[in-house]
Amino acid sequence: MMFGSMAASTEYIRSGKLRALAVTTSKRLRMLPDIPTIGEFVPGYEATGFFGIGAPKNTPAAIVEKLNKEIDAGRADPKIKVRLAELDGTELPGSPAEFGKLIAVETEKWAKVVRFSGAKVD
C-alpha cells in the first residue's frame, strides 16, 4: 500500500499496473471517476497536497510581484493548462498573500493531526 501522488501514479493506474483503492481528495477525480474517495468510507476524510513557489521572508515586494506576474503568465500557457488537466490538477490562482494564508491554514490543519496522533520527534 502507498499514498502516492497522482502525477506519479495515474499512468500506472490507467495501464492496470497499479490498483487504486481510493483517492484522498474530497471529490472523485475527473480523470479516474471510478475510483472512490476515502471519504466515502471514512466520512470527513480529506488529504490533498499543493505545490507553490516561495521566496525568502524579506524578499522585496517588487520582486515578489514580478515573480507572481511571471508565474501567472506561465500558468496561462496552453501547454501548461493541458498538462495540469491531464494530471487532474486544480489551479489555485491568487496573490502571494492568499498563498501565505493557504500555507498557514494547511499547517494548522496538519499540526492538529500530529498533536492528535501523539507523534513525537525522536
Furnish the topology, listing elements before pairings.
Blueprint: H1 6-15, H2 61-75, H3 78-86, H4 96-117
Key terms:
mainly alpha; 122 residues
Could you characterize what this model shows?
This protein is mostly helical and 122 residues long. It has helices spanning 6-15, 61-75, 78-86, 96-117. The longest helix has 22 residues, at 96-117.
Question: How helix-rich are the residues, as a percent range?
Answer: 40-55%
Distance between the termini: 25 Å
What is the N-to-C order of secondary-structure elements (H for helix, E for strand)? HHHH
Strand content: under 5%
What is the count of DSSP helices, taking H or I runs of 4+ residues?
4
**Average pLDDT figure:** 90
Over the alpha carbons, how many angstroms does the gyration radius reach? Answer: 17 Å
Question: Describe the biggest sheet?
Answer: none
By secondary-structure content and strand pairing, the structural class works out as mainly alpha
